[in-house]
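Cross-posting from the modeling subforum.

Setting up a comparison between two proteins and wanted a second pair of eyes on the formatting. Protein 1 (sequence, then structure tokens):
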Amino acid sequence: MKWTAAQVPDLSGRTVVVTGANSGLGLATTRTLAQYGARVVMAVRSLNRGHEAAARIHDEHPRARLEVRDLDLADLESVRGFATALHVDGVSVDVLINNAGVMAPPHLLSPQGFESQFAAGHLGHFALTGLLLETLSASRDPRVVTVSSMMHRGGRIHFDDLNGTRHYAPREYYQQAKFAQTVFALELHRRLGAAGSQVRSLLAHPGYTATNLATTGPRGLPRLAGRIGNRLLAQNVTMGVLPQLYASTAPDARSGQFYGPDGLREMRGYPTLVKPDPAAEDPTAAQRLWELSENLTGIRYNLSAPA
């Protein structure tokens, strides 16, 4: 049986944080979660666009429980402020969906001086997850779902040129960010398991899905190629969002697993279990990336094995 959004269980009483919730996969995720009763915190870089997106969902689902909050994942100060505000307001988080990202822009640096794709895609989510881990650990069936990409395959961490100061290729550094997210989610699963935590760390990717990611970040010919590909080759967002919805809600979705489309080359189709690039499962590389991420963000995860 092919899993669809119609199989999402009742989510009443659950609170989900979705990064990049105002467009594309994030918006589709938010719409479905709200439809099935979840309270969704829409973490967005533009409050105006976030409120516009929330209004569209309310038009379709008047009972939707939505909160729009400001979050720029490329800015670690914004990440800290977002997490602090949730704690101060007493928001208990059951699921964190690390969805937001940017794709193949010109060479840009974050406020802290990190390459923008790595900053927003990996470092921001690493920091956010660490800052929300305590509230996640106290909730019922807590999950962290990290949205990767087919393009993590063949990626690597440029430890000797992390920010692309010597050589920058937009696609190559997009792969770095997605590879880092994959390594992070798998290492988080290992560390949570060693600590006896009930928090699940899961991965998902949407295959080739028509979103604005491929048409807003790239410039020139890559942007044109993205528009053509979206029109001729990509599946629609309603299908592309299914793997992350499955990872976020399905009772049998297990920690450490990676979900993607079941079609040819994982480009389209219904959710199924897929395999990461073998290099992303290397525990030595994961340890190195984890320590680097802690040093760059200043975030230390509070994980300890049970007595």
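Protein 2 (same layout):
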Amino acid sequence: MDGSQHGPLAGFTIGVTAARRADELGTLLKRRGGSVVHAPALRIVQLADDAELLSATKELIARAPDVVVATTAIGFRGWVEAADGWGRGEELLTCLRGAELLARGPKVKGAIRAAGLTEEWSPTSESMAEVLDRLLGEGVEGRRIALQLHGEPLPGFVEALRAGGADVVVVPVYRWMPPEDIAPVDRLIDATVARAVDAVTFTSAPAVASLLARAEERGRLPDLLAALHHDVLAACVGPVTALPLQTRGIDTVQPERFRLGPLVQVLCQELPARARPLPVAGHTLEIRGHAVLVDGVLRPVPPAGMALLKTLVRRPGWVVPRAELLRALPGAGRDEHAVETAMARLRTSLGTPKLITTVVKRGYRLALDPSASADSTYGG
């Protein structure tokens, strides 16, 4: 049976830290067979009644900008809606009609057109770096540029424009705040440290910062960083999002296009590639996060059984003593009978008992095929 029918993410558990579009990302992952742990690391606070946004809007209406950079659809819509609420909506739209409107991506273009406006240009890469290159290439000396922020300052963007002689007005439409319910974040941190998730996805730099800050508050930051450094894949939607992790020495994977679909595709490539197939007792064994593919058939395995199997797979073909297997069992204490119980359940889960051989009075071993190298180690 072909395991691909289960989806490339079958057997893997993925943490989702997104606040916006979390359901969309979760659906994409589940369609490909993945299990999802949702823990929004942030919440978006709209600033319709915020003095900063009102002040920036009044400033632009009083003295119109030459250029307006719209970075997110939700932010641009929120700005227009807030201005409507203050009775300044038509004035803002008139102001924007007279400016060169730059849209970071297609969703922002849609929001601009829904407001009855037309964008001048949008980068094919959906990258703010390309927007900056265009502005600096045109020359910004003496130009008034309005920048709709998307939750956090854009690193170096405003500074580069001001260094070029531009008058920059930042428009803070919404802010990122810690989630009201922190419990899901704590559970994701604990699951990551315990290697109970195979990957964690990030769609904004503030989400990364929020997760790391919470881990530090709980005294778990070293353990979290160790897990992300060695065992749990950190998948980021783009380089700006990845920066807080990379500054701490964490390698990340990113799609070429900074979108949710390509991010999921990266996971579909990276996670299965980490699960090396092993020839065992005439079968092909591939260990995933919470399941095993036996000859392409997905077999869910309980946590205790997976702990035993991963311990055996580190030395395929070699006898692993019961005492060592007992240490691998979560909360098993000192009773070696717990190993026998968990091993029986593991064999039942795998559906092929002969994959694991009992060596009387010594322990257990994975029945690696003679044609395979018995001194190989598992790197998955």
